[in-house]
From TrEMBL, chain A:
InterPro entries: AAA+_ATPase, ABC_transporter-like_ATP-bd, ABC_transporter-like_CS, P-loop_NTPase, PstB-like. One of its GO terms (biological process) is phosphate ion transmembrane transport. The gene is pstB. GO terms for cellular component: membrane. PROSITE patterns: ABC_TRANSPORTER_1, ABC_TRANSPORTER_2. This is Phosphate ABC transporter ATP-binding protein. Residues 22-263 form the ABC transporter domain. It is an enzyme of class 3 (hydrolase). Pfam families: ABC_tran (PF00005). Keywords: ATP-binding, Cell inner membrane, Cell membrane, Hydrolase, Membrane, Nucleotide-binding, Phosphate transport, Translocase, Transport. Its EC number is 3.6.3.27. It comes from Alteromonas aestuariivivens. GO terms for molecular function: ATP binding; ATP hydrolysis activity; phosphate transmembrane transporter activity.
UniProtKB/TrEMBL annotation, chain B:
GO terms for biological process: intracellular phosphate ion homeostasis; negative regulation of phosphate metabolic process; phosphate ion transport. Belongs to the PhoU family. Keywords: Cytoplasm, Phosphate transport, Transport. SUPFAM superfamilies: PhoU-like. Homodimer. The keyword Disulfide bond does not apply. This is Phosphate-specific transport system accessory protein PhoU. GO terms for cellular component: cytoplasm. Plays a role in the regulation of phosphate uptake. It comes from Alteromonas aestuariivivens.
């Protein structure tokens, strides 16, 4: 029979190791005595956009912060379970966290450029790694800014302060700063919630292009954004993973009533 | 003519999705048009094999309707379309129901040939073929107006249905008189009547599509009103 539309729907429960960017195994996490994540297991696909949705406090930001060990900075944080990235458990005490954070970049809700020039912002991570060759820095800065769809807007003022850029440009600069380190995974924690609707659409389009280079995990309160931009979506509620599937299925025919109630704005 | 621009969204994927959706409904329309052309050929040449192919091919059209409907649902759920995008998707969602029903009507006509129930009278057969040719032309004009999002063309096509209706009524009177004259072969006459009715119904479905084109391009609902009122309503918008 003639097939009119092609949509890829990987079964996220049966991803092979080659298809998996990050595997979470029975992850539980507490802040002091307060449980935040409860026995989460999931495989996040490579080179796709995966959205984490759920009410405030459901644990979605905490979960992505586990992927580059940002929670280590919070006192009283304890966790059990494994997070497998590139065949190793990143929760292992011998994990090189600096290296992990170059491999797993992160962009936050509010753009946070350093009080430096545009150029220095992008090559900041490289300099920390000891890269100082002018040519290599120039090439990397240009490529990262091109990938972040910012090059054309800033190429003539690379040495001006990043603070003069608009909010949308600053957020793309921060994305470029993460991309300069060629991460395997990019974590975006509500990256557009401080931006206007049009700039939001530009950032979303940027994400769609970036997934060729890395796997993207986005936390968003905006369900419409999750539906628009993501290939796969996970719904969390009170620290538990309620439903996780391809976004087409989740937003048209969710399997769990809790998911249906959440995405349709009902109280469960 | 106010076309809905499909390729100007910031999201390139949304552009592609809408373009694919539009192309798919035109593909479906083209398939149904070809089905009617094949059916008329089968009648003309009394080719049961070709008519059988038409009957089988209707399954393909049914499948297309389901696929396009699912795609509309998926796009609405994921993209939350508004304004002209929303009208485009709703137009397509309604149009495919009419196109699928056209396919069903054509299948019924094709069964005249597979069941060897073609009218014995050559004059009725040629009148039936004549209406059929007019319906093909109307379908072609309708899908063309839909493809070009051209409400003026849609209105011109809309008018063509009057002629089809007149010829249908003339044939209806003739066949009813034949049936009254002799009760022999009543079942065969009924089959012919149903086939004629199907041709006339395809014309009505084309009219529905033309109304959707106006709704798509001008955002005005012109269903259930005479052609003159439709034209007036559009002129008032200009």
């Amino acid at each position: 029979m003639l097939k009119l539309f092609e949509h890829e729907h990987l079964d996220v429960k049966r991803l092979s190791d080659e298809e998996t960017a990050i595997e979470v195994r029975n992850l539980s996490l507490q802040f002091s005595d307060k449980p935040v994540l409860n026995d989460i297991s999931m495989r996040i696909p490579k080179h796709r956009i995966t959205a984490l949705i759920g009410q405030s406090g459901c644990g979605k930001s905490t979960l992505i912060s586990c992927f580059n060990r940002m929670n280590d900075l919070i006192s009283g944080c304890r966790y059990q379970g494994e997070i497998i990235l590139g065949g190793r458990d990143i929760n292992h005490k011998k994990e090189n966290v600096s290296r992990l954070r170059t491999q797993v970049g992160m962009v936050f809700q509010r753009p946070n450029p350093f009080p430096l020039s545009i150029y220095e912002n992008v090559c900041y991570g490289l300099r920390l790694q000891g890269v100082n060759g002018r040519r290599q820095l120039d090439d990397t800065v240009e490529q990262a800014l091109v990938d972040a769809a910012l090059w054309d807007e800033v190429k003539d003022r690379l040495f001006e302060s990043a603070q003069v850029l608009s909010g949308g440009q600053q957020q793309r600069l921060v994305i470029a700063r993460a991309l300069a380190l060629k991460p395997d995974i990019l974590l975006l924690d509500e990256p557009t919630s401080a931006l206007d609707p049009l700039t939001t659409l530009y950032i979303e389009e940027l994400m769609a292009g970036l997934k060729k280079r890395c796997s993207i995990i986005i936390v968003t309160h905006n369900m419409q954004q999750a539906a628009r931009v993501s290939d796969y979506t996970a719904f969390l509620h009170q620290g538990r993973l309620i439903e996780y599937s391809d976004s087409d299925s989740l937003f048209t025919m969710p399997h769990k009533k809790q998911t249906e109630d959440y995405i349709t704005g009902r109280y469960g | 003519m106010r076309q809905v621009a499909l390729n100007t969204h910031i999201s390139g994927k949304f552009n592609t999705e809408l373009e694919n959706l539009r192309n798919s409904v035109l593909t479906m329309g083209g398939e149904v048009e070809q089905q009617l052309i094949d059916t008329l050929k089968a009648i003309r040449t009394n080719n049961a094999g070709l008519a059988e192919k038409v009957v089988l091919n209707d399954l393909k059209i049914n499948s297309m309707e389901i696929q396009i409907d699912e795609e509309c649902l998926r796009i609405i759920a994921k993209r939350h379309p508004t304004a002209s995008d929303l009208r485009m998707i709703m137009t397509i969602s309604k149009a495919i129901t009419d196109i699928e029903r056209m396919g069903d009507e054509i299948e019924r006509i094709a069964r005249l040939v597979t069941k060897n129930k073609l009218p014995a009278s050559k004059s009725i057969q040629s009148s039936m073929l004549l209406i059929g040719e007019r319906v093909v032309a109307m379908m072609r004009g309708t899908f063309d107006a839909l493809a070009r999002q051209d409400e003026q063309s849609a209105l011109q096509v809309y008018e063509q249905d009057n002629r089809i209706d007149r010829e249908y009524k003339r044939l209806l009177t003739y066949t009813t008189e034949e049936m009254e004259r002799s009760s022999e072969g009543m079942q065969d006459w009924l089959e012919i009547l149903w086939a004629l009715r199907s041709l006339e119904r395809i014309g009505d479905r084309c009219k529905n599509l033309c109304e959707y084109v106006v709704s798509l391009t001008r955002g005005q609902d012109v269903r259930h009103m005479p052609l003159e009122n439709m034209q007036q309503k559009i002129e008032n918008l200009s």
